Amino acid sequence: MSPPELRLGVNVDHVATVRQARGAPYPDPVEAALIAAHAGAHSITVHLREDRRHIQDHDVQRLLAVSKVPVNLEMAVTDEMVAIARRLKPAYVCLVPEKREERTTEGGLDIAGQLPRIRAVCDALADAGIVTSLFVDPDPQQLEACIASGAPHLEIHTGRYADAAHFETAAAEFVVIDQFAKLAHQAGIEVHAGHGLNLHNVAAVAGIAEIVELNIGHAIVARALMVGIGEAVREMAAEMRKGRG
Ligand SMILES: CC(=O)[C@@H](O)[C@H](O)COP(=O)(O)O
Ligand SMILES: NCC(=O)COP(=O)(O)O
Q1: What DSSP character marks residue 223?
Q2: Fewer CB near the terminus (10 Å): N or C of the chain?
């Protein structure tokens, strides 16, 4: 039996990074999102950070008004972001950690250490019709907490795998991701993965049948500078299909 379809979520944050670098009205992450969807993206991810370093509130509003594919809003676990999500009602929210000084997300969200808070936020988002995913390191303690939280989805932080300096380290991290994905699937949680995936490392992760969605942004936007966002999405989707087998 062939593995379930593997969806590609395209994160357009860093189209906004280029725009914010000059404070210009272009490039527009919403235009990029429309092109990405036309090229085959199954969903669009935007990370509305507390410091608004790239995606702005108006980007989220405009994207939700025009997107033909579901929007996944990544956000910190704050009252401000919960209120924004409940008002704008994206299809999905992915709860992620944020540290003001970080260049990018440095790890997964600590669910185990704040379970009552996570449960309350998941309930508040579900009450607004939003499906919540938890962005976590592939750590068994975090899986137990994800199960206890009642969140229907989780996204495995693939950063340690993607950033590994040596093949052996990447291979060891891959085994951790694979085992975590299988345990999460067995627990009835829909399994996604993302962070740092690119054309060179995505195929192995795509081959994990229990993972049904990959969220990829920086590598696609970087490639888009050379070939355009549509071609960059098509290339990534092809590499994912190769890995899926
Ligand atoms: C949660 C995650 O890994 C990314 O989707 C996140 O958006 C990274 O933050 P930046 O997009 O600001 O690099
Ligand atoms: N959650 C991962 C994501 O949306 C994109 O991460 P990256 O590919 O920009 O590292």
Answers
A1: H
A2: N
pTM value? 0.97
Please tell me which residue in 42, 153, 195, 210 is annotated as part of the active site: 195
User: Can you give the residue ranges of every domain in the chain?
Assistant: 7-244
Class of residue 91 by CB neighbours under 10 A (exposed 0-12, middle 13-18, buried 19+): middle
Which residues, 6+ apart, have CB-to-CB distance to 4 below 8 Å? 209, 212
Q: Is 195 a catalytic residue?
A: yes
CATH 3.40.50.740: does it fit domain 7-244?
Answer: no
Give the orientation angle of helix 79-88 with respect to helix 57-66, to 10 degrees: 20
Residue 119 tokens, joined: 């449960």
Q: Which pLDDT tens digit goes with each residue over 21-41?
A: 999 999 999 999 999 999 999
| CA-closest residue to ligand 1 atom 6 | 105
